[in-house]
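Reviewer comment 2.1 asked that we show a complete input and output for one of the modelled complexes. We chose the flavin-adenine dinucleotide case, as it is the one discussed in the main text.
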Amino acid sequence: MKYDVVIVGGGTAGCAAAYMLGKYGKKVLIIEKNTFLGGSMTSSLVTPMMKTSENSINNEFLTTFIEKMKKYNSAITYSDGNNGWFNPQIAKIVLDELMKESNVKVFYDSVLDTLDISLRHIKKIYVKSKMLSTPIEAKYFIDATGNCDLGFIANCNFQNKSNENQPTNLRFMMAGVDTRLFADWLLKIDNDRNVTTVAEVDGQVHLSTAYTWDNDKKWALKPYFDRGVKDGIIEDEDRNYFQIFTVPNMPDTIAFNCPRIYFEDNINPLDVNAYSEALIKGRSAILRLSRFCKKYFKGFEKAYISDIADSLGIRTSRRIVGKYVYTINDLKSGKKFDNCALISNYPVDVHSNKKDNSVLEHFMQEYQLPIEALMSADMDNLFVVGRCLSADFYSQGALRIIPSCFSMGVAVAKFLNNIL
Ligand SMILES: Cc1cc2nc3c(=O)[nH]c(=O)nc-3n(C[C@H](O)[C@H](O)[C@H](O)COP(=O)(O)OP(=O)(O)OC[C@H]3O[C@@H](n4cnc5c(N)ncnc54)[C@H](O)[C@@H]3O)c2cc1C
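Response of the prediction step:
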């Protein structure tokens, strides 16, 4: 089997790269370990997308994806102008359709196994698929695995330090919620609209609200969480991060961006013990949080857990050493680059375990990422897109959002189209 480009990982950034390369007429294969595309967007239930800069570039895949999702009533533009509220189940179908439209071949249930390298070139990869190890050749490879598995197996260099981790989340959904009742109740208790938003979009009630155990905001839900802990319904650490959203075309459903899984010494998501323990801990917290919502929130009386993410939501793990290592100083200074892959103004979003020191550092200005941060320094035919790009810990905290991962995929596809 010989391809122009093989993309390992059919997630957020991988799908964007594959779709564009397919549209350019290249022979493209995606190797995906799940049985569906979308990666964190679908298997970790990460929705909605964060809003990015109005001057963002390489948006072709974002626009195509959202337009198609809207045709199935499964994406909306929220009241703040963010067009990235989407339904993760329908996303699986839409991504299948988009890959078919651009003639991209997908191998599901297939995991990267080993590879052959010669003179700084990956020649062949071997993929475990239905117990067979199949050799696959390509001119170029793109690592879109999130954890940079291809770069790791190719023995590339990484920049991680042991203390550079963020907490993980195991997201879930509850259905059977009377969202109108819940929205009215939220507006009543959060009467200065401090952290709550409610809007009616395309005939569905939409909302978002949040609570963290930090004291930096007037959290309307704080008294309920305090009572929940006092009554023994939830544990203290269940309060570390709570964030919820409605989902387009799921009118009775609330998506939870929590529990945030808390370990005293943080978690290394590449360690099988820590990863497995986090899943177990997360599922047990989901049970407590669901009982808590049913007991204290109006509109949740008949609600039930309808979905638990298949994969843990990992914010950061391996980051490759690329031809350019992007830094927080580049980001803060808004440094300009000739070969710009993306433009964004999303803030640095690094989660910590500590009370009073949780997330988000705001910069109002835009920043640019050079394409060289998506090229391996060690392998001449390897590109890296998504959260495992060549960026330092803090700048990666700003670059990892879904629209930026899409732009990385599109930028690499355009670059490869010019040289293939
Ligand atoms: C808890 C949490 C909340 C977040 N909230 C938001 C948010 O609200 N909005 C937002 O815009 N962003 C959010 N993000 C960030 C964003 O979702 C991710 O950073 C982004 O989706 C990562 O994209 P990716 O392409 O790097 O990886 P992924 O989308 O995870 O794709 C990786 C793909 O590679 C596959 N894969 C992995 N290893 C192999 C292998 N060895 N062989 C074959 N296939 C493999 C996986 O199955 C997966 O499909 C959040 C992230 C987390 C963790």
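The chain has two domains: 2-161+316-419, 168-308. We note this here for comparison with the apo prediction described in Section 3.2.
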